[in-house]
Specification:
Length: about 230
């Protein structure tokens, strides 16, 4: 089993676009992160939203953001697939771009899918895999997500691997069982975590009116680290 503790980045939420304003990227919060002595990762997933003109405006705003240097924080933005070339060509060089998904194997007769090889060809460095919406709506199992992560890594992509619990799972007290199973399915297939960011995504706090506190997120992160240290 691979060790997530060997990853270069901290495990944390994928932050929504609401973290951005017209002049800064939560600069005060990132200054706080800088004092903690670890490299942090901020990801923005735009999901299935936006037009060409809207994307251009967002990128223009982000290009003016005040952000600590790249040795303090990595910033990765994930627009819809059709806008990847536009964002990549116009985004400031210290920010990076991620696809929102890729297929589990080499391309072929898989209508509607995007292969890891295609992303590499477009020079897209990152991909999000295991997002809760794909797990729930498209029935992507833990094992399937693990296979996707392994294949994407084998093709040279960096992976944002999502894990997280639903409201029912949290209220039933099974959060760590769920997250541990999701993580283990990836770890069973991955030995080198240097190109993986493990992102805890509390599904119950998305569009429900409920808010996940930093303490709740840290609880999951701590348990994941403990699990990794015991099993690896």
């Amino acid at each position: 089993m691979g060790n997530p503790n060997n990853a270069n980045h901290s495990t944390l939420f994928l932050l929504p676009l609401s973290i951005f304003n017209s002049s800064s990227l939560c600069h005060s919060r990132l200054r706080f992160l800088q004092t903690m002595g670890r490299k942090f990762f901020v990801g923005g997933n735009w999901k299935c939203n936006g037009t060409g003109e809207e994307i251009k405006k967002i990128v223009a705003t982000l290009n003016q953001a005040e952000v600590p240097s790249a040795d303090i924080v990595d910033v990765v933005l994930s627009p819809p697939y059709v806008f990847l070339p536009l964002v990549k060509s116009s985004l400031r060089p210290d920010f990076h771009v991620a696809a929102q998904n890729c297929w589990v194997k080499k391309g072929g007769a898989f209508t509607g899918e995007v292969s890891a090889e295609m992303l590499v060809n477009l020079e897209i460095p990152w991909v999000i895999l295991g997002h809760s919406e794909r797990r729930a709506l498209l029935n992507e199992s833990n094992e399937f997500v693990g296979d996707k992560v392994a294949y994407a890594l084998s093709q040279g992509l960096k992976v944002i691997a999502c894990v997280g619990e639903t409201l029912e799972q949290r209220e039933s007290g099974s959060t760590m069982d769920v997250v541990a199973a999701q993580t283990k399915a990836i770890a069973d297939r991955v030995s080198d975590w240097s190109n993986v960011v493990l992102a805890h995504e509390p599904v119950w706090a998305i569009g429900t009116g409920k808010v996940a506190s930093p303490a709740q997120a840290q609880e999951v992160h701590t348990e994941l680290k403990d699990m990794a240290s015991k099993e690896c």
